[in-house]
Write a structure and sequence with these properties.
heterodimer; A: 7-stranded mixed sheet; 4-stranded antiparallel sheet; 0% helix; B: mainly beta; 6-stranded mixed sheet; 5-stranded antiparallel sheet; 11 strands
Chain lengths: 113, 114
């Protein structure tokens, strides 16, 4: 089945450690996104990529990094510079602006101990 | 700049009652508008979307929404609530200018009372 796979579903890390969240899609979509979700704040855009080897910062990119070496993959690294990394992270894709909707993965919950 | 406002972070309705979740947007260009539903610890699922054409949009699970340009609104309704409708609902807007960016509201948590 076509879809978006995020892993791991749950992740714990100690302060000062980097962690990488995986997002893989087999929908053949060009654009991919990372959102952060905190209670009462909706979804906030971290990074997005319209095409392979290109990506743009979103509204809250500080302390995060991404890469887009393959069309199917858009991993997010939460670095030790991110001051409050505990959150639910959502990966999404879309075919393009003329199609419209975002398709979401199941999310990854990161807890910093 | 585009923005989305959802009035009411929490809404409670009785089972069988009308569901009305409010969404207002601001956009300098005609927007694409979306409603998504999220169940606990899951991703978002599209309920319905407005791109062009008919302003009354029907979605899954009996939900519908009406695009009202004069009121800059896109409220979500369902005639009769079911217990399974309890979830968080997000309104979103995307730019039609090709920037690939989507703006989400802060969400409304719907509680359905037996």
């Amino acid at each position: 089945d076509g879809g978006i796979t995020q892993s791991p579903k749950y992740l714990f890390r100690k302060e000062g450690q980097n962690v990488t969240l995986s997002c893989e899609q087999n929908l053949n979509h060009d654009a991919m996104y990372w959102y952060r979700q905190d209670p009462g704040q909706g979804l906030r855009l971290i990074y997005y990529s319209q095409i392979v080897n290109d990506f743009q910062k979103g509204d809250i990119a500080e302390g995060y990094s991404v890469s887009r070496e393959k069309k199917e993959s858009f991993p997010l690294t939460v670095t030790s510079a991110q001051k409050n990394p505990t959150a639910f992270y959502l990966c999404a894709t879309t075919q393009g602006w003329n199609t419209g909707e975002l398709f979401f993965g199941e999310g990854s919950r990161l807890t910093v101990l | 700049a585009q923005s989305v406002t959802q009035l009411g972070s929490h809404v409670s309705v009785s089972e069988g009652a009308l569901v009305l979740l409010r969404c207002n947007y601001s956009s300098s260009v005609p927007p694409y508008l979306f409603w998504y539903v999220q169940y606990p610890n899951q991703g978002l699922q599209l309920l319905l979307k407005y791109t062009t054409g008919a302003t009354l949009v029907k979605g899954i699970n009996g939900f519908e929404a009406e695009f009202k340009k004069s009121e800059t609104s896109f409220h979500l309704t369902k005639p009769s609530a079911h217990m399974s409708d309890a979830a968080e609902y997000f309104c979103a807007v995307s730019s039609t200018s090709g920037t690939y960016k989507y703006i989400f509201g802060t969400g409304t948590r719907l509680k359905v009372l037996a």
